[in-house]
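#structure-requests
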Amino acid sequence: MAARDSLPLTSFKLGYDDRVSPFKIAVLVFIREYCTARLAQLGMSPHSHYNSIPPFSSQQCKDFCLLSLELIQCYDVTWEDFEIILEPGHYNLSTKIISEFTRSLHQIVKDGASGLLDLGESLEKLLMEPAKGKPMIRRDSVLGIFIRKMVLQLDRMTFEGTVELSSNLATYLDKSNKSEDPLDLVQVSRKQAELLVSQQLTMLQRNESLAHSPVNLQKIIDRILHENKDFAEANFLAHLNEMRCQDFSQAEKRLHQSYDQGTISIEGLIHSKLEDNLMNNKTFRHASLNMAFLHASFGHHELAVTALCETVALSGEAADHTCLQESLAWFCHLEENPEMRLKMMERLVTKSSESNLHYLASLGLAMWTQDCALAGVEPKRIFEYLHTNDVANCQHSLTDMTITCLALRAAIWSFYGYPRNALQVSQLLLTLHTGDPTKGNIYYNNEHMHMAVCNIALHLSRQGRYTDAESITKFAAGQYANFQQHSQIWKMTDLHVAFYRTLWLGQWDKAELIISQLAVFNRSESLAKMAHLMLCKGDTCQGKSVLNTLEERLSNVKEPSNHRMPNPGWRMGQKLRLQVQSMMLRSVLLSSRQNFVEALLQISQALDICKKHHMNLQLALVGMQSAEIQLMMNFTANALDLVRKHINIIYTHGSLFEQGMAIFLLARCLLAETGTKTCDSMEFKSKKAEIFPLLTRAKRIFNQIEAFHHVKDVIFLEALLYNHLGYEKERNTRAMVFKQLDELYPLRTSNSIQIFIGL
């Protein structure tokens, strides 16, 4: 007995009976008014004010039953929320019943304690069997049990308690009283708290936008813990709530509190020693694993590895294979050596498959596919892995892993340089039926869905449809508010598009402001864009300094993160893309200083990276950058061959900006080629006249994407060409248009090299 008295016995007590609250009184009145109206329709009630109501439809009866069940199960809500539930559109209810329900509630408040006593008597009559037919509510039904329980509580209350309840009901209905927190007037029973915590946990995992805001959820959790101090699941929900608020201290505190409760089982103490029970209790293993996840999420790499080692030690002693494989999955996530990661993931897939841990096996195969794609494995093998994973996910109904694999497939298509294929997969992901009837039919709306929405916005921006892209971004902002974990994705997408729009308009100051905002989320990305901006401005000294900083940062394997720890695989994917862009920018910098040999060496290294990792679109853009440099070196034939080699890929998969730049470069190469060949004047004019359709097409594309800086370049070339051909009228027209654009979009830069980096 002494040993048992030292335990937190509140961890094993049953929930207390539901107490009567103002919200439950409102539910009782709502049930009474509906039943009274139903009896009046059947001619069994003397209430004449219900005789004018048309008979209830089957849908109205069904909606009443569903609403009643929801009101009985849910925790107490404020009167404002109750009115929102009763509004048209949520449930098909009679407006007459809703008005009579509101009137009856206020009448009970006016009558005071006697109104509550009359309510109990009228509810008991609904359970009595009439002379003819069956009772309106069966005593053993869900509503009957709820009414009997509440009536029993009303009968047990003292006169002072009844008066206090009446006063609380008046305060509950008073909208003008804003001095008190409305949550103080509602109560949560143990069963309701368990249902609430379960629902909120599901929403945080599947669709965070449906969950309560962090502030309101914390208030509800505090109220639950005030009445159920031993409720460990509520503390764990508070831990997840603090994590999405990025509060490490409180998240760690809540995690300790959630696992400090209920770690010792009475059954284990009865049949074994205390030490054996402590060693075999899986709570400690899960606590250590969750602590590792907490440290990894905040970038504490060493502490996360230490917690995982402790988890492995505890799981090994208890022979817990599931926990061991979960720890291995996190080791794979934290490992930064690509070769070691591949070995660990291969073991994870093998062992999880042998132990029938299908979720972990699917997760390991997805991670394996991701790393193989970034290591340069042939694309056909990558998509074979994805197909195998899709089949396994369908066989075992792993909806969340199906979503993960679709998001991975879209990311791989984008990495290979096929954004249209990535768009199709993103659209498929958004139209996928992900609701689970066993979990409230809550659809997934997590990070992968967020990325799919942003992929669509980015694709629209690449096509110059900025208005449509902005509406998609606003939708994402509404779905994923500032307090949510993955809200930075739509913010980065919005800043990414805004930067290139301001860059093409020549608005350098706005572009620098956007870069400073982007640095909050991704320092390397902001450095790449700053170097691009400096070279566009012609500031080669500042551009060189920024490029040196970027290259030093990219060469640092253990790059620090000022943000939640990303997946190292996709960080490495971003690293490859930024390495190629930095080499392209370095080649532009060297070419502006007439150092063409070093510039082509940088281009050669970028081509090697693109070929090794099958980055086809990036390979074409690097080839175009090489053609631009060779055109400056007067290697016209080589430049023209490179443009013709890569232009079809850009036509097929490139953005409008990239297409316009490629067409403009093709026109310049053709123009330079005509100057190197000897031909008569008529043939010379006919060849140059073939260039005008290309210039017109490039100008139309640049106008569509609002790249007026490049529109001026095209018009300037047209004016020079018309002047060379002797068409003075057309030359003067182009000169006038150029002057008008220069007044609207003044731009002073000494950089004449086109940079093939865009959306």
